[in-house]
């Protein structure tokens, strides 16, 4: 069989890197990655202080000075801001790019440019830190920086959605253990958010209540609650895809993360730090993905009650998960909530200083 003939027919689409393709049947997206950046010294963390030259210059370096936080940025090619607590820069291995080729193709081989911005937020100068060891004040700083970037990104052309996520541990797909988040934008709404917002609007129109508000009302104080703070609840969802999966959501109906106040950010930091601490105490060397499910802020018809989802990765998927979308769990969400709840309450007590 002559494969070259077949490949030549589509050679133009095979050579374009940085495009986002959509499957004609499942509507799933995939991105063909660019892999230009080969400058990696395995002994050096590019995200550690002193190695700033290994990354792009910072667009924001948060520096604590005299009890105040200063917002500085690197001067390109000249000097790097030192003693930063948090550092934000454009990824050197961007998944999306604003320099992508402007090429589209039609169904059945639909593709569009993987156009967007990809920022890295380094959550601590200490590479030994994790999201479960940084203190709540540092978590608040991280969230303030994320909120700031999000607001700016939604003023940019070609930004329809801002996705924010963190991967912890090798099983979760993380290659650099230095704690960091990704902020990356798309010119279309990602399928999972599209599904959530469509179903939210359908239920809201039919029943007059947002499905997340409806769920939270039932989960407060129930068998799947992990933890509550003043404004937030953490709970294991009724039908989780992963053992020990939990979600964090404002108790009130809030659709815009960009509008939450400093007080709410501090409250969110507390529940994030306490639950991630609880998770790390529950599962040794845990790997997890943490994703923000936020509204596409420019599309009024697509608003969702925002929340954070945490997926601990404890085992590989089987054919049933991958091939049919039916998930097998060896821990029920009720058992998981009980164990995570006890561990998270202990963390919370340590954080707020009552024991
Ligand atoms: Zn709601
Ligand atoms: Zn969600």
- Provide the CATH superfamily of the largest domain: HIT-like
The level-1 CATH class of the largest domain: Alpha Beta
Average the pLDDT over all residues and give the rounded result: 91
- Count every beta strand, where a strand is a DSSP E run of 2 or more residues: 14
Structural class: alpha+beta
How much helicity do the residues have? 25-40%
Q: Sum up the overall morphology in one term.
A: globular
- The low-pLDDT segments are 1-16
What gap, in angstroms, lies between the N and C termini?
A: 72 Å
Report what the structure shows.
With 355 residues, the protein is of the alpha+beta class. The protein folds into 2 domains: 174 residues, 2-Layer Sandwich (HIT family, subunit A), CATH 3.30.428; 160 residues, HIT-like (HIT family, subunit A), CATH 3.30.428.10. Helix content is 29%, strand content 22%. The protein is built from 8 helices and 14 strands. The strands form 2 sheets. An 11-stranded antiparallel sheet has the order 4-3-5-7-9-8-13-14-12-11-10. The chain is globular. The N terminus is likely disordered. The site of one zinc ion has 4 residues, from strand 14.
